[in-house]
Design a protein that fits this description.
This protein is an alpha/beta fold and 268 residues long. It has helices at 2-24, 28-33, 60-71, 85-90, 148-156, 167-176, 186-193, 223-239, 241-262; strands spanning 36-40, 75-79, 96-99, 109-118, 120-123, 140-144, 160-164, 181-185, 212-219.
Length: 268
């Protein structure tokens, strides 16, 4: 009987110690529920039943997964625009939010820079003469629905804008000629055009638009979480994580396009 009591007491101590350690390491609510909830500016609508899953716009999903690995929790993405971040964080709906900028956040929200940023860059057939934004007035420019910055930029050029659920759908339209120009982030442009099948689309326009810096938003009260994020961002930078994530995105999207164009029984 005494042995059982001691065993129960030891188990309780270990559980308490584990909880305390999780709290000390930040994101205590996430550890308590067993899931890290990450807000992102946009989530594409789910694919139709039976359709293949396609790579989303940008690196947000990869960033969230990498943070989840660091804290040892599975990740759930939720759509949370930056303007709703403070309310979502205060309500405990999300543990952290990815945003393009930290403008107008209240003091209850802490901001951690990621060190990653980008701006739209064009993919154009090399046999065209379009090299300046003014050259594409009236041309069709295609991008993912999530690429709000790219859409605004293309509209400022006087282009005809078409948006698609995911990046690969927009790029298929470019390859098939129904769109004149595709827009992706400049960080993923170079690894994408390295693929042989994309070399003939490796022309681009003169740089335009504002470079947007990705930031993490989290409750200012979560000092441990803030410290963890600051440490992680330094570690990611030292390890070349941004280059690796951009290369993976380009590889995945190139494969998505290949499936849509070349593999008849994999359409979706």
């Amino acid at each position: 009987m005494i042995r059982r009591i001691r065993l129960a007491a030891l188990t309780a101590c270990l559980l308490f110690a584990g909880l305390a350690q999780a709290q000390d390491s930040g994101f205590a609510a996430a550890h308590a529920r067993g899931e890290l909830r990450v807000g992102v500016p946009y989530l594409a609508p789910p694919p139709a039943a039976g359709a293949k899953i396609r790579t989303p716009h940008g690196l947000d999903a990869q960033m969230a997964d990498k943070l989840g690995q660091r804290v040892g929790l599975p990740v759930r993405l939720l759509q949370v625009p930056a303007g709703q971040a403070a309310a979502a964080l205060a309500a405990g709906q999300v543990d952290v939010v990815l945003a393009d900028a930290a403008d107008d956040q209240p003091q209850t929200v802490a901001v951690q820079a990621t060190g990653y940023g980008g701006r739209p860059k064009a993919l154009i057939r090399s046999d065209t003469s379009w090299r300046k934004p003014a050259d594409v007035r009236g041309r069709t420019v295609c991008m993912a629905e999530a690429a709000a910055e790219a859409r605004g930029l293309a509209e400022s050029w006087g282009a005809v804008v078409r948006t698609y659920r995911v990046p690969s759908d927009a790029l298929v339209a470019v390859r098939e000629g129904s769109c004149d120009i595709g827009l992706v982030d400049d960080t993923v442009w170079e690894p994408l055009v390295r693929f042989p099948e994309w070399k003939k689309f490796s022309s681009t326009l003169a740089a335009d638009g504002v470079r947007r810096q990705r930031v993490w938003l989290l409750p200012a009260s979560d000092t441990a979480g803030r410290a963890l994020l600051a440490e992680e961002m330094r570690a990611w930078d030292r390890a070349g994580a941004w280059k690796a994530m951009a290369a993976k995105w380009a590889r995945d999207v190139a494969f998505d396009v290949y499936l849509d164009q070349e593999v008849a029984d994999c359409h979706g």
